[in-house]
From TrEMBL:
This is Transgelin. The lineage of its organism: Eukaryota, Metazoa, Chordata, Craniata, Vertebrata. Residues 31-142 form the Calponin-homology (CH) domain. It comes from Gouania willdenowi. It holds the Pfam family CH. Belongs to the calponin family. GO terms for molecular function: actin filament binding.
Amino acid sequence: MAAKGAGMANKGPSYGMSRQVQDKIDSKYDPELEQILVEWISRQCGPGVGKPEDGKMGFQTWLKDGCVLSELINSLFAGDKPVKKIQSSAMAFKQMEQISQFLNAAEKYGVTKTDMFQTVDLWEGKDLAAVQRTLSALGSLAVTKDEGTYNGDPNWFFKKAIENKRDFSDEQLKAGKNVIGLQMGSNKGASQEGMSYGRPRQIL
């Protein structure tokens, strides 16, 4: 059995396989979403962040040193800014450090682990669709939270769990917010305290 498996693995050069996988990942990259994200980020951060060249490579280059991302996440926090130091650097490790500061702050803001890209996804261009997914999740959260820090068209991102929102008073929402998280549909069947069962525990 093992020999047969090994034989199959050796069929053809392996790089062909990863090329295929890469193409599949690339096909999830959405040029229309790119336009929305670019528009949102430039509005959210102001003219200082500039605009990328069109296309995936331009998008990656624009975000790669982590500075634009850090400006973006900081702009969503009304009070204390989560990323204290934003510094452009030509050094790889500094850029990666800046990206991971953004990722930590995005998690603090409420983006779930499953929506997070990894530093290499952006820095090495491994999975730019994942980067788009993280930024969309961030946009959706910003629209949903409605804290007055979102700067853009509310229709660019869909609100999370909007169908349940009217069932709760603001007070209840505040009380239950940290328990409920802002996951879609998670407050279906939730009791007063905002507890619900049968759901994975929020990792804060």
